[in-house]
């Protein structure tokens, strides 16, 4: 069943109010998006949607409900839900379990889930990060890895945009996350001007192909199921028959609906997912280009190099020379500063 969920007049971003959530981050993000709307108006960007911020809480049954300060909003409108940080210790299992089903349901509708600091524990407990990369505050890296061993916990990345799931590391990383969401959904100019207004460091816009931002709000549930599957396994071992089977569709029907929903053929989509994952490996690991090619699903490293250059405009070796973070074995909060000095 297909239903159009995109709202051209507003970008609906929700903030999760859970027990212990840092209110400074919640209100700071709300203010950041308010400033973005003001900046967009001053720029005369009438074609851009307005950011509409709402606040959400889980009721006794675990269902997301609008908080009293957000009357008249619907969960079906949400394009993004942000799980803010906390000044307390890592959330207890009972609190995480209460939110598990609602987060999975929201993600299954095509919403992007984003976290700051230990907010990642909520997404991890939902199972959506199993087999996928994520980052968190350096003080909670070990706890995250121990409690959720199926997650590939990254220690070098201050912000990890994996398409349908975004995680950020630092306690104050909510500014970076907010600006990245603006850059993704509203464009680099508005994100940069919002950062300038707030007198904070802008988030560097990634090269084309380095971060894949798939279209998720199309409303085709069968196609969305395949997209989530591809993001989860980085597009590896994905052929037409397997994708059609995942969607529960005949191959020709799947091809037609996939392209209509995402704007890409399945092979092009898989290439984008693989190259995005390869970019992170080139930046943050010392693996050889051949090893990275094999790791993201290419049997032929030469074919990988051609696809990588076509999508990013750089060879894998040139990309690494330009963007690699030094000291990949370190665990520190200065990766963003290192990245900025290299770009």
From TrEMBL:
Which PANTHER family does the entry link to? ARAC-FAMILY TRANSCRIPTIONAL REGULATOR, HTH-TYPE TRANSCRIPTIONAL REGULATOR RV1931C
State the protein's name.
Helix-turn-helix domain-containing protein
What the entry lists under PROSITE patterns is as follows: HTH_ARAC_FAMILY_1, HTH_ARAC_FAMILY_2
A Pfam family that this protein carries is: HTH_18
What InterPro entries would the database entry show?
Class_I_gatase-like (IPR029062), DJ-1/PfpI (IPR002818), Homeodomain-like_sf (IPR009057), HTH_AraC (IPR018060), HTH_AraC-typ_CS (IPR018062), INH-QAR (IPR052158), Tscrpt_reg_AraC-type_HTH (IPR020449)
The keyword Transcription is annotated on this UniProt entry = yes
Give the organism, scientific name. Pseudomonas oryzicola
Spans through the membrane: 110-129
Q: Which UniProt keywords apply?
A: DNA-binding, Membrane, Transcription, Transcription regulation, Transmembrane, Transmembrane helix
Q: What region holds the HTH araC/xylS-type domain? A: 224-322
Its domain of life reads: Bacteria
């Amino acid at each position: 069943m297909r239903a159009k969920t995109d709202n051209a007049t507003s970008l609906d971003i929700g903030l999760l109010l859970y027990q212990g959530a840092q209110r400074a981050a919640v209100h700071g993000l709300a203010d950041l998006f308010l400033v973005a709307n003001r900046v967009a108006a001053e720029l005369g960007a009438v074609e851009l949607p307005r950011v509409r911020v709402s606040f959400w809480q889980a009721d006794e049954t675990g269902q997301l409900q609008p908080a009293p300060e957000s009357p008249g909003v619907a969960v079906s409108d949400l394009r993004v839900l942000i799980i803010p940080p906390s000044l307390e210790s890592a959330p207890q299992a009972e609190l995480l379990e209460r939110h598990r089903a609602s987060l999975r349901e929201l993600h299954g509708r095509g919403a992007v889930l984003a976290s700051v600091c230990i907010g990642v524990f909520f997404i991890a407990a939902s199972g959506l990060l199993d087999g996928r990369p994520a980052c968190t505050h350096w003080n909670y890296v070990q706890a995250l890895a121990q409690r959720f061993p199926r997650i590939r916990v990254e220690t070098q990345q201050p912000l990890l945009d994996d398409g349908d799931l975004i995680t950020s590391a630092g306690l104050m990383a909510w500014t970076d996350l907010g600006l990245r969401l603006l850059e993704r959904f509203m464009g680099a100019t508005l994100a940069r001007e919002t950062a300038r207004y707030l007198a904070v460091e802008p988030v560097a816009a990634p090269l084309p192909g380095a971060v894949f931002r798939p279209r998720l709000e199309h409303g085709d549930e069968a196609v969305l199921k395949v997209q989530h599957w591809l993001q989860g396994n980085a597009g590896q071992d994905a052929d037409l028959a397997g994708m059609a089977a995942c969607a529960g569709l005949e191959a020709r029907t799947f091809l037609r609906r996939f392209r209509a929903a995402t704007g890409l053929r399945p092979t092009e989509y898989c290439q984008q997912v693989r190259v995005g994952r390869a970019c992170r490996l080139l930046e943050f690991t010392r693996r050889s280009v051949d090893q990275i090619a094999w790791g993201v699903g290419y049997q032929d490293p030469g074919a990988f190099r051609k696809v990588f250059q076509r999508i990013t405009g750089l060879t894998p070796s040139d990309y690494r020379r330009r963007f690699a973070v030094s000291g990949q074995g370190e665990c520190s909060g200065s990766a963003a500063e290192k990245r900025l000095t290299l770009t």
